Amino acid sequence: MLLTITTNRKPATDLSFLLHKHPDKVQQVEISAGIAHIFYPEVSEERCSIGLLLDIDPIGLVRKKNENDFALQQYVNDRPYVASSLMSAAIARAFGTAMGGRCQLKPELVSIPFPLEIQLSGLPVSGGEELLRSLFEPLGYTVECSRYPVDPQFPEWGNSRYFSVRLTNSVTVQQLLSHLYLLIPVCDNEKHYFVGQHDIDKLMEKGKDWLPNHPAKELITKRYLKYSSNLTNEALERLLIEEEEPGEDESVAEEAFENTRKLRVHDQRLKVVCDELLLTGAHSVADLGCGEGKLLRLLLEQKQFKKILGMDVSHRSLSIAHEKLKTERMPEKQRERISLLQGSLMYRDKRLEGYEAAALVEVIEHLDEPRLAAMEKVIFGYTKPVYVIITTPNKEYNVLFESMSHDKMRHSDHRFEWTRQEFADWGNRIASEHGYNVSFKSVGDEAPEVGALTQMAVFSRNK
Prior knowledge:
Blueprint: E1 2-7, H1 14-19, E2 27-31, E3 34-43, E4 48-56, H2 58-63, H3 85-94, H4 96-99, E5 114-124, H5 128-136, E6 142-149, E7 159-171, H6 173-188, H7 197-207, H8 217-224, H9 229-241, H10 248-258, H11 265-280, E8 284-288, H12 294-300, E9 307-312, H13 315-325, H14 332-337, E10 338-342, E11 357-361, H15 369-383, E12 387-393, H16 420-434, E13 436-443, E14 454-461
Parallel strand pairs: 8-9, 8-11, 9-10, 11-12
Antiparallel strand pairs: 1-4, 1-5, 2-3, 3-4, 5-7, 6-7, 12-14, 13-14
């Protein structure tokens, strides 16, 4: 199993600084089933190539036996000879510092795209050349591949599932390593490890800059998580819904328009929602899609709210919320007021029932049509709070963002952005179908013709 990474960007030896491996040394790192050797087949100012060669111990593989393997699979398999998930483990061990985007001696190199050529021998691809291209070409790679025959002496047996692969692209070394780390196991479709919650975190961390917009993200997620339906559903929800700060285009535009204000736009939005919840007179409130807990902090400051729930699909966001709210150090009575739960708005959840009010702040625009319909049913059909407050971007306001093209949305994860009329049509339909009254309000200063940056709907259930 050999992986080589080559560049001809001068001085090509910069590659050794980025990968933290000295060209004059042959180095080794241990992985769970063997040893990875790191060496430089070619080093010059014009061209530099680093190799990662795996020496897998078959006995070590037997010790890592998968209970789902058939009786002889632990003894008769291709694992010592192919580029599999074991290669991903070796990449993480050998080039962990580079994957983290760190380069102590030449930090300026981290963000520079390098012309890179990658050679992989013996890559098993369950899905053939079409799958291989569908994974790498959307990321800008040129893919050249040849398939090994089952046996050259018996051509009538046809081709195997093993490929020799050459990839070329101009990307940062950190990006390249994240692509290889996730996509090599996806090609192989067989893992040497058990999957669990930590694998979702790996997927989110290594794929955060490219996976949400990849056209094959669902396939990648399913294969990486070994088709575990629970883990796959959670990972896809995190890709779709996980609350994030405004994207670069929005942040730049908002800074220009909001530089005379005392509050950041997002903080202003949360304060308006908190004030609206106070006006309802509700004593129990659920922040659905609570993210890192910014609205929860405001709610805790109000004595009116005796029972507060924060729910999010992201374990990571909830962990940050716990840390920022300092829940472990809260006085007992304060701690009894608040609960943080992991959950999805796509499924009925009895833990949400009984709350007088619910808030969804900048959540719905992250849902595609089927998930939006599921959310509607869960919130308005099953949970039925007396009051529901929903905010979402006002698409009409986008024309004021000089850096945004007319066909672009404020965040890459937004599935839609509505005009005021579209939001009103949706809100009125929901109210009519589920027995609510609804009113619509603007959040922030209104500009002539286009309204405010954010729009809000306040639903109140008919008595």
